[in-house]
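Troubleshooting log. The previous run stalled partway through. Resubmitting the same two chains, unchanged.
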Amino acid sequence: SQQGEEDPQALSIQEGENATMNCSYKTSINNLQWYRQNSGRGLVHLILIRSNEREKHSGRLRVTLDTSKKSSSLLITASRAADTASYFCATDDSITGLYGGSQGNLIFGKGTKLSVKP
Amino acid sequence: DTGVSQNPRHKITKRGQNVTFRCDPISEHNRLYWYRQTLGQGPEFLTYFQNEAQLEKSRLLSDRFSAERPKGSFSTLEIQRTEQGDSAMYLCASSLGSSLNTGELFFGEGSRLTVL
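Second attempt completed without errors. Output:
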């Protein structure tokens, strides 16, 4: 099963423009992460935001988290052709697991396919 | 290369055959995960280990699937009596997890299975 739902499913922009992707989820979480996947490759971690944080920056990436709306957004500024990839949000559920904290697994959404045209 | 390594990268098999995939995680990582991904979808959780203990297994996982992590190092994922619906990319990831959070996952390049 997949908890996160990214929106839009596909996004096409010109180089230099900003790209915004949104993620909604269903249950309470410990943290939310964003990953990137180039076609046919493994996923690469981009950024992690904890449930008590509202915004986080890393280079050209800006992530926001609204736990009251159970949603997050990923903003990529000044996009480049090399940013073309699929982007996934993933949630670390706070449902009590074996150790009384994280359940242990990371649940991914279906992803947003970003195309940046030169 | 000190990343997560998966073998084989590609496997083509006939329906009904058994296949086994291997994953070598980053050496100091205590957690190891298996995910399955089909075209256009996000990774679907299959199972994960903390050291050698298999702590969680997806309810959606058929009993034809079995995973092991002897000695808490590498892991194998075996699929018995393969079906065409098993065709997918099988992704392995490792992390330094704790009781408080899962942490960042480091993924391998995946093993692509095609069942004819």
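Takeaways: The radius of gyration of chain B is 13 Å. Chain B touches chain A at residues 4, 31, 33, 35, 40-45, 48, 50, 55-56, 60, 91, 93, 97-110 (CB under 8 Å).
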